[in-house]
Each structure stands twice: as structure tokens, then as C-alpha cells.
Amino acid sequence: MRAVVQRVSEASVSVDGRVTGAIDGPGLMVLVGVTHDDTPEKARRLAAKLWGLRVLPDERSCSDLNAPLLVISQFTLYGDARKGRRPTWIAAAPGDVAEPLVDAVVTELRALGASVATGVFGADMKVSLTNDGPITLIVEI
What we know:
The chain has helices at residues 40-52, 62-65, 95-111, and strands at 2-15, 18-33, 69-73, 116-118, 125-140. It is of the alpha/beta class. The protein has one domain (2-140): D-tyrosyl-trna(Tyr) Deacylase, Chain: A (3-Layer(bba) Sandwich). The longest helix is centred in the C-terminal third of the chain and has 17 residues, at 95-111.
């Protein structure tokens, strides 16, 4: 699993002009990509990493501050643009594999006590955020 994590002061995601998820920070906006060999155990480990990641003010984590997370599925994180001008998506897991694993990350975060907002899997989403810092990390499990 791969995640792009941004510390935000606010973030939201909309589908068809309707906000489906929003957070006020400090918090994290997390894009989650799934590849073919990912498992529920990797989803659990990613959730634990996100919940404990010390990138919020004063080197605190979401768990320290009870800070919210906005989690959005993002198959393009496994795009490969090393050759040519058109990326390939071969490394991205298909929707029927990826969706339950993105859901598992959200479920695990909530089980840890996190407040989690989400996008809509497979939808054309519009993401808006204010990156705080800016701090942006790539997390791989």
C-alpha cells in the first residue's frame, strides 16, 4: 500500500458538486493507493502508521491531538510514467481488490479512535485542501 500524506489545516472532497467528506485541521489528508499484493494486514499497518505519524504541530500525531483524517482512494499512486508520455496503471489493483482494502484502512483508523472523512471510491472527485507547512510525505507499507 502507498499513501501520500499531507498535513492540512482543512480539506474536503466533493463528488458532483456535493461535499462527501471534510475535515478542519490540524489533521491529515491521505491519498491511498493499492497494488496487487496488498492485504488486510497491510491496511491495518498503514492505519496504525497514519494514526501515530508525528507530523502535526509540536511533533504530535493524530492520536495525540485526536486530529481528523480525510482518506481518499487514489489508484494513480501506482501509475508508472518512466517510459513514454502515457502512464501505465498495471501496478494498481483493480477496484474489486482495492476498494475493500481502502475501506479496511478507514475501518482500522476508526477502531483506533480516529475521526475519518472519506471520498467516494471510483468517483470523479474534486479535492480541496490547505497544506500546512507544507508537509507532504509518501508512506509505503
